[in-house]
């Protein structure tokens, strides 16, 4: 973990930590989702940040023809690793302090959303699939239904593949007016800005730009991080987010 790359604007009762290559991979699909050595790496990373992996909900992203990439699961202590190995979801949502949320990620945008008054925490996997769904507005709606207001919502978006290097051979939204500020059409393909597009969706929903923090780190060029698009098919970073008990 690189200290300078962690979010520093969140209140003291919320901890968010993002691992780096030196911490080891927290997911290697070729070895199985819960390979013992990989789970040991997750456990070590959590314990280094004073969180037991047994108190963490492991978020699994499923890529398949049947996936809709907009699944939200509300979780509590019953969903932690001490009870079940994983929760398949594109976003996790919790109201419980002490329940950690853990997401493996490479080039996609791991996004933390926190309500500083209602004390609600969510973790979204905003990759190229889920970015095209209504996952983000649906998570916001879940916050609003819980009494959240835009002024109290804080967002952190992790290191991810940057627009200058993240190329897709095919992108179905290449002519969508909403995407035009966030794509470059070049002779060799279409380059997209996932973080920028999702930031704009938060802004369009009424959040303040002061409350949205996007990591400037490009996983495709920074050697401290794994990049699936650059060939690190066996490596993933982990994002750990947890709320602490607040003093009354």
What can you see in these coordinates?
This protein has helices at 36-48, 135-145, 194-204; strands at residues 14-18, 56-60, 72-74, 87-88, 91-94, 100-105, 109-115, 120-126, 153-157, 167-168, 183-186, 189-192, 212-214, 237-243. The protein has a domain at 3-148 and 217-243: CNF1/YfiH-like putative cysteine hydrolases (4-Layer Sandwich), CATH 3.60.140.10. 39% of the residues are buried. The strands form three sheets. Strands 3-5-8-7-9-13 form a six-stranded mixed sheet, with helices on one face. It has a five-stranded mixed sheet with strand order 1-14-6-2-4, with no helix packed on it. A three-stranded antiparallel sheet has the order 10-12-11, with no helix packed on it. It is 14% helix and 26% strand.
Please name the defining characteristics of this protein.
CNF1/YfiH-like putative cysteine hydrolases; 6-stranded mixed beta sheet; alpha/beta; 5-stranded mixed beta sheet; 248 residues; single chain
Shape: globular
Side-by-side strand order of the widest sheet: 3-5-8-7-9-13
Cα-based radius of gyration, to the nearest Å = 17 Å
**Top CATH class of the domain at 3-148 and 217-243:** Alpha Beta
CATH superfamily of the domain at 3-148 and 217-243: CNF1/YfiH-like putative cysteine hydrolases
String of helices and strands: EHEEEEEEEHEEEEHEE
Just name the CATH architecture of the domain at 3-148 and 217-243. Answer: 4-Layer Sandwich
The biggest beta sheet, please?
Answer: 6 strands, mixed
The whole-number mean of residue pLDDT values reads: 95
Fraction of helical residues: 10-25%
List low-confidence stretches. Answer: none
Strand content: 25-35%
CATH topology of the domain at 3-148 and 217-243: CNF1/YfiH-like putative cysteine hydrolases
How many strand segments? 14
Tell me the structural class: alpha/beta
Number of helices: 3
Question: Distance between the terminal alpha carbons, to the nearest Å?
Answer: 32 Å
């Amino acid at each position: 973990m690189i200290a300078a790359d962690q979010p520093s604007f969140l209140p003291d009762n919320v901890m968010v930590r993002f691992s780096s290559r030196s911490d080891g991979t927290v997911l290697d699909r070729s070895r199985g989702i819960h390979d013992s050595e990989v789970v040991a790496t997750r456990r070590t990373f959590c314990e280094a940040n004073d969180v037991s992996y047994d108190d963490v909900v492991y978020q699994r992203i499923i890529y398949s023809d049947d996936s809709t990439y907009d699944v939200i699961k509300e979780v509590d202590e019953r969903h932690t690793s001490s009870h079940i190995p994983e929760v398949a979801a594109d976003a996790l949502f919790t109201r419980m302090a002490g329940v950690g949320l853990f997401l493996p990620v490479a080039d996609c945008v791991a996004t933390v959303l926190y309500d500083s008054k209602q004390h609600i925490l969510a973790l979204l996997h905003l990759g190229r699939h889920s970015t095209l769904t209504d996952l983000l507005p649906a998570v916001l709606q879940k916050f609003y239904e819980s009494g959240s207001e835009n002024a109290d919502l804080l967002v952190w978006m992790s290191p991810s593949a940057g627009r200058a290097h993240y190329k897709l051979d095919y992108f179905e939204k290449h002519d969508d007016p909403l995407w035009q500020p966030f794509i470059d059409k070049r002779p060799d393909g279409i380059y997209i800005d996932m973080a920028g597009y999702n930031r704009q969706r938060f802004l369009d929903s009424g959040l303040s730009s002061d409350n949205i923090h996007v990591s400037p780190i490009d996983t495709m060029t920074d050697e401290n991080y794994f990049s699936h698009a650059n060939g690190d098919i066996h490596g993933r970073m982990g994002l750990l987010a947890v709320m602490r008990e607040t003093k009354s």
